[in-house]
Please model this.
Amino acid sequence: MFTVNHVLPGVRHITDAMGVSFTLVEGSNRAILFDTGYGMEDVKAYVETLTDKPVTVYLSHGHHDHMLGARWFGKAFLCAEDLEEFIERTGEGQRTKVMKQAQEQQVPVPEDFMTVPIARPEAICFTGKTGSFESKYEELGNLEVLVIKVPGHTPGSIVLYVPAYDLLLTGDDWNPCTWMWFPTSDSANLWRERMKELIRTLEEEYGRSIRHVICSHRPMMREGNEIRGFLEYVTDRRMKEAPAIDMGAPINTHEIRNDEKDWQLIFDQDKIKEEGQ
Ligand SMILES: [Zn+2]
Model:
């Protein structure tokens, strides 16, 4: 079952039965679906109940919880740097893990889940630059969306920006619970500086502060102030002093928490660079 929050005109944030969220952004001519979730149910059929416009699918990055639902669409776009991740995480090993997880959550698994082919996404062709970031515009009809490559959570992570609403869609590049501990993730301090640069660049370019943020692991829209506060909170010092946390992987995972704000950053401490401290 899907649930949907109609957060802004033409912007619907959808959450699937496994608990991951993705977003439909609709203009007067066409729409973008940003991510597809785990795909245990027919995402395309559901999206068609929300819009009658043609839908272009963009995948925020190559992790299974965002792109297994691409099976329901003929075509999707992904940053070239995450194609390898996509292949790995649509493979048998990952599907087996996801199937187990679904069964534990008592989410029905489609019969063809293990075998259904998932078309390899087309690489996003960036046509311009926003500050130092590669980007491209998508005109949806009275609504413009900027697609921006922001390596961090994975090398091919993208975010969307909707200037009309001062709205940033971060995918997994930022969540109140941000996971930066994957083998292909950047060091947490490099990621933090890049996110700050992104926000600075967008605010300079459009002359306004980011007001709204939509991320993939929360069903509700967030405030721009929250991401700014989070990035200020995860200082080099807190990264150095963060206690270890066992994520069940042979990675030197450490955690910064702020229970009052419900924030968490999990990162690989081995990747933290010493310079500039
Ligand atoms: Zn991810």
Q: What stands out?
A: The domain at 3-236 is CATH 3.60.15.10 (Metallo-beta-lactamase; Chain A). The chain has one domain: 3-236.
